[in-house]
Each structure stands twice: as C-alpha cells, then as structure tokens.
Amino acid sequence: MLAASGGVVRRKRFDRLFVVLGMLVLIAALAVLLALFTDLVRQGAARLNPDFLTSFASRRPAQAGILAAWVGTSLIMLVTACVAVPVGVAAAIHLEEYAPKNWLTAIIEINVTNLAGVPSIIYGLLALGLFVYEFGLGQSILAAGLTLALLILPIVIVATREALRAVPRTIREAAYALGATRWEVTAHHVLPYSMGGVLTGMIIGLSRAIGETAPIITIGALSFIAFLPTPPFTGEFPFLSFAWLGDPFTAMPIQMFNWVSRPDPAFRVNAAAAGAILLGMTLLMNGLAIWLRHRLRKTFQW
Predict the structure, then answer these.
(1) For 48-299, CATH number?
(2) Which residues contact 76 (CB under 8 A, 6 or more apart)?
C-alpha cells in the first residue's frame, strides 16, 4: 500500500515537472518570436506608414510599397481556404466516420500522413505540370491558391480526424438511440463538437501557406508588378466578378525576397517592414481563428 502511494506521489511530481518544463519552453518560444517581431519593427519603422501599404513596387526604395503584394497574398489565402478547408474536412469525415477499416483505407491514411511532410517545392513542381500546363490555368491567382491548398490539405485532414476522434463515443450512441441517421449524427453532433480542433488545423495550415515562397515561385509568381487584379465586386448584377482568379499576381514573400536580394541597403528596410506586416497578418488571422474556436468550445461542451 505504501509502495503504491509512493508511486502516485512520484508520478504527480513528474507531472508537475513536465508542466513547468512545458511552460518554460512556451515562454522561450514566445520570447524568441517577440524578439524577432520587435527587431523587424525596429528595422522597418521608417517605412511603416499608410503610403507603404498603398504604393506599388518601385525601383526607388523610398517610394516602393506592398500594395500589389498584400492584395495578392490576401486573394491567394482566400482561394486556399475556400478549397482546402471544405475538401479537407469532407475527406476527414469520410475516412473517420464512413470509410470501412480495411487495407485500402490504411494505405490512404498512411499516404495522407506522409504527404504532410513532403517539401513544398514538390507541390510547386506538381502544380506547374498539372494546373499551369495541363489545365491551362497559367500563372494566375487560382493556380497559386490551388497549389497552396494541396500543400495544406494533409494538415487539415489529419487535424480534423484527430478532432473527430476526440468526440466521446457516447454522444454518437445517444444520437443513434434517438433514431438519427449517420449523417445527422455527424453533421449535428460530431462536427459541431469537434469544430475547435478543425479550426486548429486551419490555423496551422494557413499559417504555413501564407509564408510559402517556393511553390508560387515555381508556378511563375511575378517579382515586380505595378497593377492590381480585377476587382471582385462590380457595379452591375450579379455584382461579383471572378475574373481576378485568372490574373497574374505577386505575394508578400516574393516581394520581400526581391528586396533582400538587391544591393541597396534601403531595400532591406522595406523588406523588414514587409516582414513585420506579414507577421502581423499571420497573427491577426490566427487570432481570429482562435477567437472563433474559443466561442465554439464554449457553445459545444460535453
């Protein structure tokens, strides 16, 4: 009895030690992130103004801006989210709730997991051959969004499956006992309760996609562009235009790489300012998703 009690005390001590170590690692990671962000803001403070956000790229560093870059990044992220999230969630639901547990499903699961670790340049080469040449999408926003959607699709699928598995089996059994169909159980009970984990996968995937450079360079992103894509809204019915999907583009990482590669030190100030804004966009996007996840977890609790 005393030996068992001593073992429980020892395990509790290890648990507390693990919590302390985890907090120290978290604090260290946040400190590094804060230091990097502060350094970017300090270096690019001279260009962090409204003109920098509303000006096109220029050969003169004092007049150069990131208007085309941040608009292109925002539109690419919109296409990426609209493609990757529905497809990824649907695939995860099928694999977890509907697919039979056999050798074919096991092979699919292994391949999905392995795809999450494939280098991004491979997705760029795949997109170059498939979207740009085979489907004829060209060097467009749609091709870039589909490329990044493929890149983060395995991450969304894996995170969604883990969230679905975390829902207690008793919730499913209670719904079945009341006569619900499998789709009603999934749509009305399992998916709402797992939405916090689904949003976590979205956060991780989109955070990776927004900073990717290799795939969009491979499919032909422009490093210098002095115009905006076609506006998505028009003054005539149906008031929406999808012509912007076929327009050429640039993105924030491409613009930063272009400035850093130039010999003039003034362009490095622009790159630092753009990096701070890109990091701020990522934190804002993540903050919105975390807030939505918190609201959903308060709404659906078991």
Answers:
(1) 1.10.3720.10
(2) 141, 144, 145, 148, 216, 249, 251
pLDDT along the chain (302 residues), means of 10: 63 85 90 86 84 84 85 89 91 87 85 84 87 85 90 90 86 85 85 82 84 82 77 76 82 86 84 86 80 70 54
Amino acid 32 reads V
Decide if 95 contacts 157 (C-beta within 8 A): yes
The Cα–Cα gap between 201 and 195 comes to 10
Least Cα distance to 252 among 283, 218, 287, 279 occurs for: 279
Angle at 73 between CA 225 and CA 161, to 5 degrees: 155
Is residue 154 within 8 A of residue 113, CB to CB? The reply is yes
Sign of the torsion angle spanned by Cα atoms 85, 91, 94, 95 = negative
